[in-house]
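#lab-general

N.A. 3:47 PM
ok so I finally got the sequence cleaned up, no stray characters, all 554 residues accounted for. can someone with queue access submit it? mine expired

B.Y. 3:52 PM
send it over

N.A. 3:53 PM
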Amino acid sequence: MKPTIAGIVILLGASLFWNCQNNRTFSRSELSVIPQVQKMSLGESSFQFDKSTCLLVENKEQESIASQLSGLFEKAAGWKLQIHVGTKEVSNQICFKTDLAFAEESYALEVSANKIVIRASGPAGFFYAIQTLRQLLPAEIESSQMQPETEWFVPVITISDAPSFKWRGYMLDVARHFFSKGEVLQMIDNLALHKINTLHLHLTDDQGWRIEIKKYPKLTQTGAWRVNREDKHWNSRPKQKAGEKATYGGFYTREDIKEMVAYAQSRYINIVPEIEMPAHVTASLAAYPQYSCSGGPFTVLPGGVWPVTDIYCAGNDSTFLFLEDVLSEVIDLFPSKYIHIGGDEATKTEWAKCAKCKKRIKTEGLKNTGELQSYFIKRIEKFIKSKNRVLLGWDEILEGGLPADATVMSWRGIKGGIEAAKQGHDVVMTPTSECYFDYYQGPKDTEPLAIGGYLPLGKVYDFNPVPAELDKGAAKHILGAQANLWTEYVPDIKHAEYMTFPRLAAMAEVLWSPKEVRNREDFSRRIQFLMKRYKHMGINYSKSGDKLVAKSDK
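B.Y. 4:20 PM
back already:
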C-alpha cells in the first residue's frame, strides 16, 4: 500500500515536532556540575528524557546504578526509565559501555540529540557518570514530589572526567550525638551526589559507644547511654549522679551496620570505622572498668570534660585481648581496608601512676609514657595487620615512633602529614584550619553556636591537600583529604546538614577537580545552582557562602 500525501504530511509534521522539541541549545552559563569535570565540550541541541527513554546496560552492577537514576525519574516525573540488559542499541537510549582503557573511577559521557553513551572500565566510573548526568538535568529531578511542568532536557555535550585524589572523605561523629541508621543512609545519598567516596564514622568516644559488640554486650547496654543534659552547654554538663537514669543515646546493631555498609557500597562509598584508643574511652570503661588503670567506677560523660584522663591500661594484657576481640567483630562487619583507632589527645597521667604501666615501660625498655603510647599503637597495628587491614590514626600516633605500615590522618595542621609522608607513610590531610566543619562558617552573631574557629566556604575551596614542602616522591603518599564534622554542638541531622553543606561541595571540588579547571568565580556561580538542587533534596544548607568570590573571607 502506497503512503498517501496526507500521511506523508503527518509524518513530516511529527518529525518536525520531534526535532523542535529536541533542539534546545544550552549556554555554558546554564551548566552547573560540582565537582567541576576535567574536560567538557558543549555542543548544540539537547537530549530529552521521556517515558520511552531506556537504559541499556551490560550486567547486574550497571543495572543497579541505572535503577538509581530511574528511581529519581519515578518520583519527580511519574515514570520510570526502562532498563534493558543487552547490546542492541536504539535511539532515545542511555548506553553503558565497558572500556578497560579507563582508570577505575574515570569515565566519558557523550550526549547527542538522540542517544547518551557512557564509557568506563568498571562500576564506579559508571556511577560517577550518572552523578554528572544527574546534575545536567533540571534541579527538579531531586524532588520527591511530582514535577509535571518540568521538561527533562540535558545539553549535547562531551565530558571526560577523573578524580584528582583517591581519598575524598567526610567524617561524621555519631558518638557525641547519635544519628539514626536512616539519617546516616540519607547522608550517604547526599555524599554520593558530590562524588565523595569515603565515610568515616566516629563510632566511639567518652560520650557514647555506638556499635553492637556481641562478646561485650555492656558496651551498648551501658556505654551507649548517658544522662540527658541536652538543655545545657556542652562544657557545662554535670556528670551522672547516683540514682540518675541514662536516657540519651543509641547504637547500631550488627544488622544496622551491614545495611549501612551495603547501602554505601551501592553508592561507591567506603565506610571507615573508628574505634578510639587508648583515650576518649570513658563510655567503654563505664561498661568494663577493669580495662582502666584505676578500676573505676566510671559513667558515660554527658558533655565535655578536659583533660580527659580516662584511658585504657597499657600495662594489662587483658586490655589488648579485649580490644582485639572488639576489633575482630568490627573487621567482620566492615570490609574497609582501613581501620581507624583514633590515638589522639591521650592524657597519660594515669599511666604515670599505674604500677602495671610502669612495669610495662621497664620490661619493654621504653623511656617514658610517650613511648608507651607508641608501644600500644604498634601492638594494635600488628593485630590489625594480621587481619589484612591497615591501621589509620590521628597524627598523635607519630609520637614515640610510627608503626611500619600505618596511615596517618593529619589534623593538627599539616606538619604531621608532612613528617609521615617523608617517612614513606600514606597520609589523609584533614587540618582543622580547612577541614573542620564544626567551625563557624559565617559571622558568629548570625550562626548557630559552634565549637569555635572560622571556616568559610571560600577557605575550604582554597585548600590544597599537597603541601609545597613535599617532593614528588613524598607527595604521592597524600591519598587525599577529608572534611570532619565533630558533633559536640550538633544535636540533630538538620544541624549536621547545615554545617556540612555547601562546604562539602567546595571540598568535593578540591579533591576531584584538577587545579587548572577550578575557578573561584565560576564555583560561586555554580554553587547557586547546587543550592536549588539542595532545596529539592530537602537538605538544610547554609547560605553563608553566597559571596564566595571575595578573598577577604579568608
